[in-house]
């Protein structure tokens, strides 16, 4: 099992923020965030800077559907030696596509709300999920970048990480890294799997021979769930944390898949999240050996944790998954991932 423990720790002058011949990989930290979330963003930055990035100085790139305030810019830059940059999302990446029918959207939102689907009535939430699914890597500011680490406001990082995780991704030929693996609310994605099945029938050649389809379609572990999601286990990598290679999102396979989903309308008529969309694509179209569990990165996005059993960690109880109600443990999909990805 490829634990990164043995790899070279490359800290030093070549990682200085302005190093001419920097040892940094072509990668960035990436955050879609609102001005109103400044303080929560600063908390996330503080954790990631102190546990990892102060050793490597990877740049921070902030994205927003409106202009960032001066205060946002000043206070975020003050948290790091690394370079920060601020980018507005172009309207053509954010606006609701022309083929979405407003009446149908309103009607669906009502039904989703009755079914207690979280955020269903918030238009911008749907837009955010669509942007994270199929738009962010098309932003002009990211065109020359290959890898990113997605960081949300109000998350925590608990453990010292001494190696360059982007170099690890590259040297081990990884496409995607995750920390938390969950079941989703089937009511957010009733037609995601049926649409995916249709897409697979049209493009059987896109399915990777070493895929993780079993993880996506297991019907034994939580039968009602898989039934409600029409064949999808709802297992997904929790995408508020992602370390990934954008080459996969930029491939023809993924572009075709995203366009198919986008046309089907489920980002608005249902509440498809970028987590299930990314995860279904990875589970079908990518080699499962190129997906890595960063078990060593202590992480929390309320209400779930990834708390390593070993390592230099502060504030993370080893092995903890949630500190919420015990039923939240039912949401842990790691056992299925280990089963189908053949990890121990
Ligand atoms: P949750 O994690 O699913 O509860 O959703 P969040 O509210 O945390 O949103 C996910 C990410 O998208 C966070 O980084 C938010 O800051 C960001 N986000 C969500 N909606 C918007 C929006 O309308 N504008 C901007 N700029 N960022 C948004
Ligand atoms: Mn969040």
UniProtKB/TrEMBL annotation:
GO terms for biological process, alphabetical: cell wall mannoprotein biosynthetic process; protein N-linked glycosylation; protein O-linked glycosylation
Pfam short name (any one): Glyco_transf_15
Phylogenetic lineage: Eukaryota, Fungi, Dikarya, Ascomycota, Pezizomycotina
Keyword annotations from UniProtKB, A to Z: Glycosyltransferase, Membrane, Transferase, Transmembrane, Transmembrane helix
Family: Belongs to the glycosyltransferase 15 family.
Protein name per its UniProtKB record: Glycolipid 2-alpha-mannosyltransferase
PANTHER family: ALPHA-1,2 MANNOSYLTRANSFERASE KTR1 (PTHR31121), MANNOSYLTRANSFERASE KTR4-RELATED (PTHR31121:SF7)
Any one GO MF annotation of this record: alpha-1,2-mannosyltransferase activity
Database matches in InterPro entries: Glyco_trans_15 (IPR002685), Nucleotide-diphossugar_trans (IPR029044)
GO cellular component terms listed in the entry, alphabetical order: Golgi apparatus; membrane
Keyword Glycosyltransferase: yes
Superkingdom of origin: Eukaryota
């Amino acid at each position: 099992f490829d634990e990164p423990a043995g790899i070279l720790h490359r800290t030093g002058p070549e990682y200085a923020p302005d190093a001419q011949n920097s040892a940094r990989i072509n990668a960035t930290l990436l955050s879609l965030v609102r001005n109103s979330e400044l303080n929560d963003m600063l908390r996330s930055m503080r954790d990631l800077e102190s546990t990892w990035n102060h050793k490597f100085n990877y740049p921070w790139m902030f994205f927003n559907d409106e202009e960032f305030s001066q205060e946002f810019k000043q206070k975020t830059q003050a948290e790091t030696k690394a370079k920060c940059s601020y980018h507005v999302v172009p309207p053509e990446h954010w606006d609701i596509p022309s083929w979405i029918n407003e009446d149908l959207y309103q009607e669906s939102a009502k039904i989703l709300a009755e079914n207690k689907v979280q955020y269903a009535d918030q238009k911008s939430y749907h837009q955010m999920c669509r942007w994270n699914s199929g738009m962010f890597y098309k932003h002009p500011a990211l065109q020359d970048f290959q890898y990113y680490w997605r960081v949300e406001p109000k998350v925590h990082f608990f453990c010292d990480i001494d190696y360059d995780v982007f170099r690890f991704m590259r040297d081990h030929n990884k496409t995607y890294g995750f920390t938390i693996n969950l079941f989703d609310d089937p009511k957010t994605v009733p037609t995601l799997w049926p649409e995916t099945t249709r897409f697979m029938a049209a493009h059987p050649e896109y399915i990777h021979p070493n895929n993780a389809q079993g993880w996506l379609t297991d019907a034994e572990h939580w039968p009602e769930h898989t039934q409600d999601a029409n064949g999808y286990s709802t297992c997904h990598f929790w995408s508020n944390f992602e370390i990934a290679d954008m080459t996969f999102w930029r491939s023809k396979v993924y572009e075709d898949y995203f366009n198919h989903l986008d046309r089907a309308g489920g980002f608005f008529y249902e509440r498809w999240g970028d987590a299930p969309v990314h995860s279904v694509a990875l589970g079908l179209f990518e080699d499962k050996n190129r997906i890595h569990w960063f078990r060593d990165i202590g992480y929390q996005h309320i209400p779930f944790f990834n708390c390593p059993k070993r390592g230099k960690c502060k504030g993370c109880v080893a092995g903890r998954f949630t500190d919420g109600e015990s039923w939240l443990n039912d949401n842990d999909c790691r056992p299925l991932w280990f089963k189908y990805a053949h990890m121990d």
